[in-house]
Amino acid sequence: MAHNYSINDDVHHQLQGPQGRADLKQRSIYTIVTCLPIEADGRPRYRIKSKTDNVERVVTEEQIRRLD
């Protein structure tokens, strides 16, 4: 599987609530900073940076969505 997002793409990141449940009320806008190596189970990973805070995260592709 290849990466579906590129560096500098803006995406929504779905924040995780308790026990891995998605917090549907909070979606933050992030920019793709780096495409990381694909995990052993085939999931592409990315380093993303918040557009509003000075926060960076490493996420898998299923945790982010394109902006509407």
Walkthrough of the structure:
The chain is an all-beta fold and 68 residues long. It is 0% helix and 53% strand. It is built from no helices and five strands. A five-stranded antiparallel β-sheet has the order 4-3-2-1-5, with no helix packed on it.
* Mean residue pLDDT: 86
Structural class: mainly beta
Low-pLDDT ranges: none
The rough form would be described as globular
Query: Could you state the order of secondary-structure elements as H and E?
Result: EEEEE
First-last Cα distance: 24 Å
Query: Given the structure, what is the number of helices?
Result: 0
Q: Which range best describes the helical content: under 10%, 10-25%, 25-40%, 40-55%, 55-70% or over 70%?
A: under 10%
What is the topological layout?
Blueprint: E1 10-16, E2 22-36, E3 45-50, E4 56-60, E5 64-66
Antiparallel strand pairs: 1-2, 1-5, 2-3, 3-4
Please name the defining characteristics of this protein.
single chain; 68 residues; mainly beta; five-stranded antiparallel beta sheet; 5 strands; 53% strand
